[in-house]
Design brief:
- The chain is 9% helix and 36% strand.
- By secondary structure, the protein is mainly beta.
- It has a single domain, classed as 5 Propeller (Tachylectin-2, Chain A), CATH 2.115.10.
- It has a five-stranded mixed beta sheet with strand order 18-1-21-20-19, with no helix packed on it. A four-stranded antiparallel beta sheet has the order 2-3-4-5, with no helix packed on it. A four-stranded antiparallel beta sheet has the order 6-7-8-9, with no helix packed on it.
- The two termini are 36 Å apart.
- The N terminus is likely disordered.
Length: 352
């Protein structure tokens, strides 16, 4: 069953890549919950690492929600290998023009503690009346908090799994298990993850049992070339029975962009939407910059959500995406020392 889903997805993706432009446009128009032609504008660099004793090189992987006019952001901080090479930070602001002046609260000062912590996702789990922060710590982990405005109030990490699940371990050679993402429908909560090796995984547990009981992951889709299905998946509800899947990929030139798919079920199957380097969901091909282009990479981030519960519902015609980008001229440093910064994308086409 797993491989039939994979095969179906690969065939659909291959067909989408080979379609002539007119046929590809027709395919995209069938996704009437989303615009046929996605275009975006990007701000300049908005958020930098703080010039403090931590000496972080980059700020990455933002997760963002908007609550009563305040934007709450959780992000990774990164620097060269060593103790604290990856950690988590929280900050908030009411205007993006002031985002960089917001005070960082480093979450290793909470019960989340020190050690490897990265790639956060924030949402409010309504059945528990708790905020959940999902992140990677070598496993898939979560912490909870009753009060979003109290960053010191996060609980200690709890893992979703006892070690690396066998399905992931069996496909992990040459890759890393990364970028956990939780979304729930009315029956189940689903946990997506990637392996930097061309596989996207999904587990599930009944919403009544969440966060316990995550099943053995299944392979949602797979790509023969790992860079075509790399990491940083997002899954959103469009609020009308349609789900949107985004996965970060690496272009032939080494830059980052996102492919997309839609489905009427979180379980899939997933139909390609904007799923090529030439026609991405977000990427250098369809992003215009306010001023000079400070990055060629549209990388790991999140849609701004105003509906903050576990459904991860967004408005498909007024999308804004907080993302990480990096100066393409910086090539002589290790990956952890890349100067990642945060920018904001806004849709620029007319509404659906």
């Amino acid at each position: 069953m797993i491989w039939s889903v994979v095969l179906t997805t690969l065939v659909a993706t291959t067909i989408a890549r080979k379609l002539p432009s007119s046929a590809s446009s027709l395919l995209r128009r069938q996704h009437d919950n989303l615009p046929a032609n996605l275009t975006w504008s990007s701000t300049s660099q908005l958020v930098y690492p703080k010039d403090d004793s931590r000496h972080d090189a980059g700020i990455k992987d933002p997760s963002i929600i908007s609550v009563n006019g305040t934007y709450h952001v959780f992000a990774s901080t990164a620097k060269s290998a060593g103790d604290g090479s990856y950690s988590l930070a929280y900050f908030n602001f009411t205007d993006f023009s002031k985002a960089n002046s917001a005070t960082f609260f480093y979450l290793d000062q909470s019960a989340i503690g020190t050690g490897y912590r990265a790639a956060p996702e924030i949402f409010y789990f309504e059945p528990h009346k708790l905020w959940y922060l999902v992140y990677q710590n070598g496993n898939a982990a979560y912490s909870t908090n009753k009060d979003l405005s109290n960053p010191a109030g996060w609980s200690a990490p709890t893992n979703f799994y006892n070690g690396t699940p066998a399905t992931i371990e069996n496909n992990l050679t040459g890759g890393y298990w990364v970028d956990m993402w939780v979304i729930c429908d009315s029956a189940n909560c689903h946990l997506f993850s990637s392996d930097d090796n061309g596989h996207l995984y999904r587990s599930q547990t009944p919403i009544s049992k969440f966060p316990s009981g995550m099943s053995e992951p299944v392979i949602v889709m797979s790509a023969p070339e790992k860079f075509d299905l790399y990491e940083a998946s997002n899954v959103y509800s469009l609020g009308n029975g349609t789900y949107l899947l985004l996965v970060e990929c690496i272009s032939t030139g080494g830059d980052r962009y996102f492919r997309s798919w839609t489905s009427n079920k979180i379980e899939g199957p997933w139909t390609p939407l904007a799923a090529t380097e030439q026609h991405p969901f977000m990427g250098a091909a369809n992003v215009a910059f306010d001023g000079s282009a400070w990055t060629k990479s549209i990388s790991h981030g999140e849609m701004i959500r105003t509906i903050v519960d576990q459904s991860l519902t967004i408005e498909p015609c007024e999308m804004r995406y907080l993302y990480q980008g990096v100066d393409p001229l910086v090539t002589n440093v290790t990956y952890n020392n890349l100067p990642w910064r945060l920018g904001l994308l806004t849709q620029t086409h007319s509404k659906c």
